Every structure is written in structure tokens, then in C-alpha cells.
């Protein structure tokens, strides 16, 4: 599948934003601290940037409001509806913290629930497609949720270290979620490697009874919408290297940095925020690579008609 | 609206494509583009039409496959190799995954005849329906930013200003080899249903659970030259079936 930049930025950015908002909803940071107020603004900002980015790949974005209508059958529609619905408690929660310096449990918990469900809907857009076997597994939403959680806990650690609260607690949460997220991803990748497609050129043409089916001539000699959108290919050796980079930058580096600051850095010192920021930067970069691979490595069943 | 019809439609309009007959001339492809660029919805645009990297939206495409029989590595090495021309357009599935993923209600399946259509004024061009379709039946029109697909020439088949024989999809009307047939696959007595029953019509990618309405008729078994050899010269000598004047001529000539 074609790794479209707008969708990679959307899932990465909104994942981080929803993750942070999820933990803010539990009142883990001191609502009176300036860092916590900033955290609320950043969370809403990341979510908004993500959602706006997602509209960039639309052919007719001016009609995007129509996407809120088909929540009964479409995961994309459900995602849109929940993204908007959860904005209400998230903004309320941010209002209480920023202007009144207090944490509201009803708004906070409703916001956290909205965050989790919205990320789940995003993942289900991909996981519900039978045509892309790599995505068609419950492991896909599990990985999306765990990644959003890990990124959110890491952001919360950064803001806690800046004076918002107990960075040690959120760092431990981040470490646990990092292990969980990359563990899930590891199982997801093992499944991908072991996949043998149920759809083949033989089933696609229905000619399997006559023998092995091979493409002789494509419909047109040039590329078309289908081959550009769904025929993206990446060399396996490059995929392996990129996966190693994603695991290292997104998993290994932040884990070591967070563990080191939890063990050695002094509470309230400069070590915590610097290490937390570096961990976050590495994680965000690793996530962009991971999301790029999520698309680039996935094969679509229509390619059975194109010999790819 | 993006929910599928609650009851499967009794009428299932669709195509039957005979892979034994198709010669891969691409006439259906061209006539499809010709008709539909001026018909239902936005025109079918081309990008870089006279350049090196020309591409555009097509609703019907012909792929050509070669089939290597069991035991062979190369075509012609074992058994009888075959080249099969394979026209492919929307199959108007009963469980159309492109319809249920649509977030706006632009994609829908008609309850009255089972045709799957896109209401282009509602389409936001997100492309998710093209991802959900296993067959590549949907292509985005890059100029209009909306999804295009086969309409089964809905603007021809019900058009009473046309002569009866023209009220079929453009691809069917134009096929010079008569490899394409249009009809109601929901009616077991229809011509197309009888062809499917007689020839063992097949579903494409049944494992995807889409239950396509369109059917493909597989190529017939080959008759080889060797098997026809016995019916050759010997059969020419046999005049046993001659009657009347020809029988008299036959007897007279035998006597000379």
C-alpha cells in the first residue's frame, strides 16, 4: 500500500495527542502547574494537526462533514464522529485546568474514554479490510492503542519533569507500555512474515483448475491509480533495516533514556526533562518509520491481477 | 445509506464474461471509456494524456494471463499452455465491502436491481472504498477528486429512447466476439443464468466473501489436432448418409 505522508502524520500525531490526553484525563499531573496547562494545549494541538492532516488526502475536503453520517457501518465515519464527540470533554477538561487550575474527574474520564475509543476506531479502519491481510487482525488495534499509550505516557513524563508532577510514575508507565507496544508489534510482524495469501492469481482469475496463472500483459503499459495506490513495493532487505531502525529509535532508545533518568536523574533537576525530551524525539521518529512500514509492507489483493 | 439493502435484491443485474471467446481486443475497454466519459457523473479524466506517463481512470480493463499446466515451469513445456484474456470491471457484489466502508453514504447498492453506484456529489474522495475492493474495480478520478466505477451503464439499460438492442451496457453492445452478456442473474430462467449453469460460471476470489454477481465462464477444454485426426480423411470417404438424388449419383459414380 502507498505510504501517504498525510496519513502517516495523521496517525502518528493524533496517536501522541490522544495518548497524552488519555493520561491527563486521570489527573496524573498537577492542574495548578504551568507545565500541565501547556500539556493540555499540546495534546489538543497534536490531535488537531493530525485530524487536519487526514483531510489533506481527500479529493473533495469541502464535503468532509458528510463523513459523519455513516457511523452505523463505516469505521472511518465512526472515527470522525468520535473524534468530534471526544473534543467536548477534552476541551472542558483543558478549560478547568488552564483557567481554574483544577482537575475535573467527569470531564477527564469522559475525555480519556473518548481518546481510547477514537484510536481504536482509527486502527479498525485498517484492521477491518479483508483485502489487506497484513492489517486484518486484532493485533492491529492492539498495537495502535499500545503505541498511543506509550507515546502519551512519554509526553506526560516530559511535562511532569517540567514541573507538572511525578515524572517517576509516568516514566514507569511509559516503560511498561513501550515493552507492551513493541512486543505486540513484534508478534504482528511475525504474523506478517508467516502470511501465505489466501487470495492468489489462481483464485483472482478463477483459472486455478487449469494450472498456475501468471500475468502476461497488464491492461496498460503505464502505471494507474491502482498500481500507484495499492502496488507500492519495498525491497525486503530495506524493510528489515527500516524495521530495525523503527524498533531501535522508537523502542530501544526511549527505553534506555527513560530507565536511565528513572534510576539516576534527580527529581526537579535538568536531567529529567532533557532525557524525556530526547526519548520523545527518538520515539516520534521511530513511530514515523513504523507507520511508513505499516503501509509500505502491506500487500493488497488487487495486485494478484498485476503480477506483484 | 451505506448499509447494504436489508433484503438481497430479487433482480441481480450483471455481466457474464466468456473467457473462452474473449480475444483481448480491448474494444469493450475503449467503448466503456467513450460512453462513460460523457455519461453518468464526472468525465473520466486522463492525466498527461499525450505524455510519456499517461494515465487515467478506466472502469474496465483487460489483463492477459498465461497458464502453466501442472508439471511445467515454462509455458508449453507440459500439458497445453493457454493465454487467457481477462476483462475486469465491477462485479456488483452482493456483500459489497466498498459500500459498507464508505463514510459519507456516497457508495450504495440499489435494492431494486443490485447495481452498485457512487453518488458523486456526496463522495469526498477518501479512497477507502478502493482499498476495500479486492478486484480493483474502483479508480479515483484525479481531476474531479471522486471515485469512479462501472455503473453497468445505468444510463443506457433503462433508456427508453434507445432501441431495444441498445439497452445493454456499452461493453456488451460493442464486443465483436460476443464474449460479454448482460442480464438478470437473480432469475434462474434468464439467458445469462442458463449460460452460467451450463458452463460452470465462476466467482472471482470467493474467499473474500464478497459474493460477486458477475460471473466468468472458464475456457472450454481444448480439442487437439491429434484427436481430430481420426475424423479426417476416412470420414470424407463415407457416403453412407447420402439420400435421394445424391444417393443415385453416388451409386452411378461407383459403377463407372
From TrEMBL, chain A:
In the record, biological process GO terms are: anaerobic electron transport chain
Instruction: Output one GO MF annotation.
Output: dimethyl sulfoxide reductase activity
GO cellular component terms? dimethyl sulfoxide reductase complex; plasma membrane
Q: Where are the transmembrane segments?
A: 7-26, 38-59, 80-99, 105-127, 139-161, 167-188, 242-264, 270-289
Query: Keywords of this protein's UniProt record, alphabetized?
Result: Membrane, Transmembrane, Transmembrane helix
Q: Which PANTHER family match?
A: ANAEROBIC DIMETHYL SULFOXIDE REDUCTASE CHAIN YNFH
Q: What is the name attached to this protein's record? A: DMSO reductase
What species was this sequence derived from? Nitratireductor arenosus
Highest classification ranks of the organism: Bacteria, Pseudomonadati, Pseudomonadota, Alphaproteobacteria, Hyphomicrobiales
UniProtKB/TrEMBL annotation, chain B:
Q: Which Gene3D superfamilies match?
A: 3.30.70.20
Query: Which CDD domains does UniProt cross-reference here?
Result: PsrB
Q: Spell out the residue ranges making up region: Disordered.
A: 208-239
Organism domain of life: Bacteria
Q: Is Membrane found in the keyword set? A: no
List the Pfam families hit by this protein, alphabetically: Fer4_11, Fer4_4
Q: Which SUPFAM superfamilies match?
A: 4Fe-4S ferredoxins (SSF54862)
Q: Any keyword Cell cycle?
A: no
GO MF term list: 4 iron, 4 sulfur cluster binding; metal ion binding
Q: What are the UniProt keywords, alphabetically?
A: 4Fe-4S, Iron, Iron-sulfur, Metal-binding
Question: Where would I find the 4Fe-4S ferredoxin-type domain in this sequence?
Answer: 13-43, 81-112, 114-143
> Which protein are we looking at?
4Fe-4S dicluster domain-containing protein
The protein's organism comes out as Nitratireductor arenosus
Amino acid at each position: 500500500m502507498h505510504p501517504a505522508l498525510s496519513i502517516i502524520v495523521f496517525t502518528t500525531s493524533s496517536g501522541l495527542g490522544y495518548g497524552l490526553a488519555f493520561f491527563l484525563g486521570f489527573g496524573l499531573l498537577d492542574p495548578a502547574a504551568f507545565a500541565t496547562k501547556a500539556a493540555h494545549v499540546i495534546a489538543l494541538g497534536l490531535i488537531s494537526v493530525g485530524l487536519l492532516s487526514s483531510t489533506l488526502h481527500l479529493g473533495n475536503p469541502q464535503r468532509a462533514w458528510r463523513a459523519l453520517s455513516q457511523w452505523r457501518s463505516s469505521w472511518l465515519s465512526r472515527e470522525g464522529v468520535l473524534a468530534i464527540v471526544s473534543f467536548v470533554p477534552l476541551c472542558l477538561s483543558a478549560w478547568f485546568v488552564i483557567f481554574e487550575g483544577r482537575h475535573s474527574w467527569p470531564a477527564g474520564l469522559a475525555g480519556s474514554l473518548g481518546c481510547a475509543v477514537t484510536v481504536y476506531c482509527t486502527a479498525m479502519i485498517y484492521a477491518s479490510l479483508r483485502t489487506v491481510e497484513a492489517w486484518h487482525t486484532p493485533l492491529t488495534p492492539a498495537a495502535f492503542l499500545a503505541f498511543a499509550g506509550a507515546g502519551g505516557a512519554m509526553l506526560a513524563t516530559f511535562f511532569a519533569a517540567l514541573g507538572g508532577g511525578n515524572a517517576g510514575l509516568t516514566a514507569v508507565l511509559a516503560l511498561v507500555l513501550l515493552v507492551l507496544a513493541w512486543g505486540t508489534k513484534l508478534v504482528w510482524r511475525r504474523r506478517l512474515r508467516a502470511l501465505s495469501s489466501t487470495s492468489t492469481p489462481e483464485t483472482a482469475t478463477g483459472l486455478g483448475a487449469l494450472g498456475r496463472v501468471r500475468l502476461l500483459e497488464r491492461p496498460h503499459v503505464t502505471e494507474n491509480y491502482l498500481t500507484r495506490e495499492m502496488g507500492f513495493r519495498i525491497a525486503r532487505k530495506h524493510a528489515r533495516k527500516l524495521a530495525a531502525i523503527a524498533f531501535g529509535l522508537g523502542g530501544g532508545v526511549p527505553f534506555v533514556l527513560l530507565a536511565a533518568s528513572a534510576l539516576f536523574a534527580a527529581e526537579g533537576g535538568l536531567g529529567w526533562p532533557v532525557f524525556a525530551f530526547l526519548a520523545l524525539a527518538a520515539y516520534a521518529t521511530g513511530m514515523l518509520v513504523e507507520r511508513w512500514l505499516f503501509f509500505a509492507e502491506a500487500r493488497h489483493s488487487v495486485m494478484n491481477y498485476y503480477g506483484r | 445509506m451505506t448499509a447494504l439493502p436489508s433484503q438481497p435484491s430479487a433482480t441481480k443485474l450483471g455481466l457474464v464474461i466468456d473467457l473462452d471467446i474473449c480475444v483481448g481486443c480491448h474494444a469493450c475497454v475503449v467503448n466503456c471509456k467513450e460512453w462513460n466519459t460523457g455519461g453518468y457523473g464526472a468525465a473520466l479524466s486522463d492525466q498527461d494524456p499525450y505524455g510519456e506517463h499517461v494515465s487515467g481512470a478506466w472502469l474496465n480493463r483487460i489483463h492477459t494471463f498465461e497458464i502453466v499446466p501442472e508439471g511445467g515451469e515454462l509455458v508449453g513445456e507440459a500439458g497445453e499452455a493457454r493465454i487467457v484474456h481477462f476483462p475486469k470491471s465491477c462485479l456488483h457484489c452482493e456483500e459489497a465491502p466498498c459500500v459498507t466502508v464508505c463514510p459519507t453514504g456516497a457508495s450504495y447498492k440499489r435494492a431494486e436491481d443490485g447495481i452498485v453506484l457512487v453518488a458523486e456529489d456526496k463522495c469526498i474522495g477518501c479512497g477507502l472504498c478502493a482499498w476495500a475492493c479486492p478486484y480493483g474495480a474502483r479508480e479515483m478520478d484525479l481531476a474531479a477528486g471522486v471515485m469512479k466505477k462501472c455503473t453497468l451503464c445505468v444510463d443506457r439499460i433503462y433508456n427508453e429512447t434507445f432501441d431495444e438492442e441498445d439497452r445493454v451496457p456499452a461493453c456488451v453492445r460493442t464486443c465483436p466476439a460476443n464474449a460479454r452478456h448482460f442480464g438478470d442473474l437473480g432469475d434462474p430462467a434468464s439467458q445469462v443464468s442458463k449460460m452460467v449453469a451450463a458452463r460452470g460460471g465462476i466467482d472471482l476470489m470467493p474467499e473474500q466473501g464478497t459474493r460477486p454477481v458477475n460471473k466468468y465462464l472458464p475456457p472450454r477444454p481444448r480439442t487437439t489436432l491429434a484427436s481430430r485426426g481420426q475424423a479426417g480423411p476416412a470420414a470424407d470417404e463415407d457416403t453412407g448418409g447420402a439420400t435421394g438424388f445424391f444417393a443415385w449419383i453416388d451409386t452411378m459414380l461407383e459403377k463407372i
